[in-house]
Amino acid sequence: EVQLVESGGDLVQPGGSLRLSCAASGFTFDDYAMNWVRQAPGKGLEWVSFISLNGGSTYYAESMKGRFTISRDNAKNTLYLQMNSLKSEDTAVYFCARVVNGWALDYWGQGTQVTVSS
Question: Which of 88, 91, 84, 78 is nearest to 34 (CA)?
């Protein structure tokens, strides 16, 4: 059974940092690219970042460039999202999702809540 379990969400002050983790199981992790996606309160899903199978290619939404860093440890079957210089508008539930067929997302985690507030 494919499972993705996010962790690391918390309440943080503006300008602070957090590192999210996504533990993968039930499939060969390094066979798949991965994404982070978020959903702010009352809003739709927003793509955050993409990482290729071996981590050699990464992409970010414009508003996250320079502040967020996606990475993966294939030996640990874990995906990460390092978030720095957090802003109130980064408040959201953050999901990790597996990529298939180049762009579709077939499995999602349950999400982890990030709240940026003073």
Answer: 78
Chain CA centroid to CA 6, Å: 8
Give the tokens for residue 55.
């981590």
pLDDT per residue rounded down to tens, the chain (118 residues): 999 999 999 999 999 999 999 999 999 999 999 999 999 999 999 999 999 999 999 999 999 999 999 999 999 999 999 999 999 999 999 999 999 988 899 999 999 999 999 9
Burial 46-67 (b: 16+ CB within 10 A, else e): eebbbbeeebeeeebeeebeee
d(CA 118, CA 111): 23
Vertex 29 angle, CA 23 and 32, to 5°: 120
